Amino acid sequence: MLPYPIAGDEEARLHSLEVLGIVGTPTGPDFDAVVRLAASFFSCPISVISFLEKDRQWFKARHGLDIEETPRRYAFCNYALVENGVFVIKDTHADPRFHDNPFVQGPPHARFYAGCPLRSDSGHQLGTLCLLDTKPRSFGVDEARILTEFGQVVEGLIRAHANAVKLALSEANARRQSEALARRNRLLAQTEHLASIGGWEYDAATGEVIWSDEVYRLHGLEVGSRLDIDEVVGRYGPEAGAAMRRQLELTATTGSPYSFEADLVTGSGERRTVRAIGERLVGGDDGHVRVVGVVQDVTREIEATQALWRAAHLDGLTGVANRAAFKTHLEAVVDRAASGGGRVSLLLLDLDGFKEINDTCGHHVGDRVLIAVAERLGQLCRGRDMFLARLGGDEFAVIFDENGQASGAERMAARIVAAVRKPIRIGNDRHYVTTTVGLAAYPDDAATADGLLKCADVALYTAKRRERGAVGTYAPEVASLFDERRLAIETVRKALASNRLLPFYQPIVKLRNGQLTGYEALVRIRGRDGVLMSPQAFSHAFADQDSARRIGERVLSLVTTHLAELRAEGFEGPIVIGVNASAAEFAGGDFAERFLHQLREHDIPPSWIKLEVTETVLMGEQARNVRLAVEELSDAGVPIALDDFGTGYSSLTHLRDFPIDCIKIDRSFVAGIGREAESPAIIRALIELAHNLGLTVIAEGVETDVQLEFLRAIGCDAAQGFRFSKAGPFDMLRSQLRKQDQLALQYPARLR
């Protein structure tokens, strides 16, 4: 088939067709009648009205043809569009432009075509009225003229369609304008009503009062009822009514502006606050002095102001003071104590066991626990010298403005601990929480409000480390520990921000043959001077939940990135790299999801990453989340190792209740080999137990040949430690994997 012709005004023609909006509309009896009449008049089996879009030919009406559209490249009508008159193909088989057309070679087997262009009012040829026959035929001048007249009928129908579209648009626009006007009118009426503003007038000579309709509604009275000043004043109560009367008389006699705000009781018994302003008006036909003005219902404004104050100063859940109000009050009482020689004690409270209730019973129960605790604290802190606030989460604070000795604050702290410890009944359940209290005093411990808060925080932190549910007082000697914690957290934060927190990899070696079997990823921080920092240097950061979580996320991200690099370099594995997870990483309940997402994102097989958790993590505050995460990861194919086995809760039920694949014997037992009798016996028992359960055993901290020989002799599966290699950067891991016999060559020949 040859390329079809395109008219020079094609872009304008297509736009005109689109504006017409006829393509895709249902056929009508008028268009159908034309094609039937045309087919009958010319004795043709097929007659259609077609419109040509950019890529298709669409039939508005058709007779003797089943299809609704064709690709444009097959349309005979392309040639009719570039003609000034009727376009005729007497025999498609004899015309090289059409003899290969699929509608010639296949159904409807067209041999003859005659098409009359259909023009828009703008002169663009949009489509055709055409005839098709299955046999060749001639088409004379008279027939062409009659087909043109049929086409003019179709053009009239097209104009009628265009006019109908315009009329519908006009009606829609008129309807939209009418609706918009109605909306504006409703909005205006609503605005006047919502503003609750009305006009009033007071005749000082007669005492008569005139109100607008809105003022009647504001007072809850029937519109138009007669009023006098005594009835109006009576709505405001004795004191406010007397003040209103005095103000009206003052304005009437002196001309001073009228301004008044008071509460009233409406005719329906509703309490409202109104604000009125006015001015004196002298003159008129009767010469009376009048006061005229407007009155507005400001009840909502007052309520909104009060709500804003509550939002700014009170905790939305418990109703006690919030953190902002606490800081303001603390600064005020410390300033007052500084000028008057007083004493201020600050008690910081942190609830113990609340998180477990929140995680296991839901936030709705947790919220009710917080409300109950706040109520108990509020009952204890009723004096003018006590100020209770919720600082956020499960943290509360009590400011004790003392005149006596510190023993008063200590007694109060003890009473608080005892009150919180009592069971909290919610429905048929009892819930138990305790509180740890940190206590500091001005001026004994600090000279400023900020300093006092820091000292109380140190006291709380120290108390929680020592014994939860107790009272801790500030001592200068523990401040250094708190400072070390803050320094460690800051060190981690800066290392994360500058990409200096890295995993170092310590090899794990099979004791049977000395072959490399995997690695453990150990976190390191590279100082700005290039010196490496081990975890001991920033260990306090692991006690901070946010820092611990961010460390774990960064290590996992880098480990999976490194494994992806190895795969890209052609390494096919298998290899197992162990990553450690702290309790903080399980707090959100989404640890497994985040872990598996990292593997999927880097296309790492789950069996290549081993999750290492300690017994302390398994049985800690996040025990439920840990169990769910470990089970989900194990089901996905991630190996699970119980790290530092024997040093935590030391319960054999862990091996039964958790999907453990491997146990790692703590270095403290390995260190006792050759020096004491107990450690070798314990190690031997642990290995035998693990093997009976089908578990692999890895010994940590292997440093000497004596330890190595003993572990191999009793059947320990693998080991790691300085005897084989220190932990090294990723480049070391890559190099060792390329030369996997390196460690085997260093392994004693007599032990292979």
TrEMBL record:
<dbReference type="InterPro" id="IPR035919">
    <property type="entry name" value="EAL_sf"/>
</dbReference>
<feature type="domain" description="GGDEF">
    <location>
        <begin position="342"/>
        <end position="476"/>
    </location>
</feature>
<dbReference type="InterPro" id="IPR035965">
    <property type="entry name" value="PAS-like_dom_sf"/>
</dbReference>
<dbReference type="InterPro" id="IPR043128">
    <property type="entry name" value="Rev_trsase/Diguanyl_cyclase"/>
</dbReference>
<protein>
    <submittedName>
        <fullName>Diguanylate cyclase (GGDEF)-like protein</fullName>
    </submittedName>
</protein>
<dbReference type="InterPro" id="IPR029016">
    <property type="entry name" value="GAF-like_dom_sf"/>
</dbReference>
<dbReference type="InterPro" id="IPR001633">
    <property type="entry name" value="EAL_dom"/>
</dbReference>
<dbReference type="InterPro" id="IPR029787">
    <property type="entry name" value="Nucleotide_cyclase"/>
</dbReference>
<dbReference type="Pfam" id="PF00563">
    <property type="entry name" value="EAL"/>
</dbReference>
<feature type="domain" description="EAL">
    <location>
        <begin position="485"/>
        <end position="741"/>
    </location>
</feature>
<dbReference type="Pfam" id="PF00990">
    <property type="entry name" value="GGDEF"/>
</dbReference>
<dbReference type="InterPro" id="IPR000160">
    <property type="entry name" value="GGDEF_dom"/>
</dbReference>
<dbReference type="InterPro" id="IPR003018">
    <property type="entry name" value="GAF"/>
</dbReference>
<dbReference type="Pfam" id="PF13185">
    <property type="entry name" value="GAF_2"/>
</dbReference>
<dbReference type="InterPro" id="IPR052155">
    <property type="entry name" value="Biofilm_reg_signaling"/>
</dbReference>
